[in-house]
Amino acid sequence: MIQLSIEGFKLVELYKSISGPRLGIAHIPILFNAFGINLNNIRKIVFYASERNIHTLIIPYSAAFGPVIELYSKNMRAEEFRRRYGIDEEHPYLRTLKYLSANYGLNIISPAIMERSGSKYYVSTVFISFEDVEEHSSQRKILVSSDEEKIGVNPGREIIVFDDHYLKYMALISREILVPEFGRIGSMRGCNTLVATISPLKPVENYVDIVKTLAQMLDRWVIHVGGIFVVEDNKYVLNSMIVDPEGRLVTIYSDSVPALISIPYKEMTSRIHEANKEETIGILKFVSGQLRRLEK
User: Fold this and answer.
1) In sequence order, which ranges of the chain are alpha helices (DSSP H)?
2) What is the C-alpha to C-alpha distance for residues 235 and 233, in angstroms, rounded to an integer?
3) What is the three-state SS of 226-263?
């Protein structure tokens, strides 16, 4: 099995001459249905990140259990699936992330977990702030897939923006990167950085080009967190990328060697532009008007 270790571990530090806190991407192994190993890998990368002045760390897609929805939704009863993989406030996964966040003094963004809230289930991206680990914010996936519907996943109803005092983030999961309107609404709510992630087993075709186009269309930074996903004897490597607001690829990491990729906030904040709210409102009003006509 692939595990994270010091040997062969890469540090990719962009703009090394720029001092100050950094945003980090954890390009690490996520093993299918191996909760203990995955949590141990996360512990290690959080420790390394805290030593490299990382203020917010983004970890991979479905980091607790790997891509279990894509593999089990068709051959496991929905109730059993939700019992095994639902994550609530008391689950060891969230409790461990909160402990790590508080202990090492950094924020953690974990995309595409199976969140349980009361009797409802969502595919959510959670933001844990080291300043208030008792509470966490969730962006619930709006565009639910057929696999997710089969196990009773509910769609999210609003767009949440996470604030780490340097940047303001919103999350897009899988096919949501094909819906720029989500990003437009997020921008109107203050978002300047999109966190994108996709399933390793059902990746969005041409996702590298789509992420670049999305950044250019919205005039926003886009961080795509990939990773090394191990499912039985197969390994799937998704690119980790940073794309600037002009749609230019700042970096792309596609190696199967684990890495911590980081970029200084100073570089990012110096190139943030205010959202063109009038243009966005005009576009959304037009789309809304067309939809009402079609529904008649």
Assistant:
1) 35-51, 68-72, 78-85, 92-104, 146-150, 180-188, 207-218, 265-269, 277-295
2) 7
3) CEEEEECCEEEEECEEEECCCCCEEEEECCCCCEEEEE
Strands 221-224, 240-243: pairing is: antiparallel
Q: Which residues contact 215 (CB under 8 A, 6 or more apart)?
A: 194, 221, 222, 243, 244, 245, 246, 247
Question: What tokens were used for 235?
Answer: 């390994």
3-state secondary structure of 133: coil
Per DSSP, the three-state class of 35 is: helix
| Whole-angstrom distance, CA of residue 92 vs CA of residue 157 | 27
Helix (H, G, I), strand (E, B) or coil at 121: strand
State the helix-helix crossing angle for 92-104 and 35-51, rounded to 10 degrees.
Answer: 10
Contact 49, 23 (CB under 8 A): no
User: With left for phi above 0 and alpha for psi between -120 and 50, is residue 252 left, alpha or beta?
Assistant: beta
Looking at residue 8, its pLDDT comes to 58
The pTM (predicted TM-score) of the whole model is 0.92
- The answer on pLDDT for 224 being more than 50 is yes
**pLDDT over 70 for what percent of the chain?**
97
| Encoded amino acid at 223, one letter | I
Task: Please give the residue that has the higher pLDDT: either 64 or 273.
Answer: 64
Residue with token string 């110096």:
270
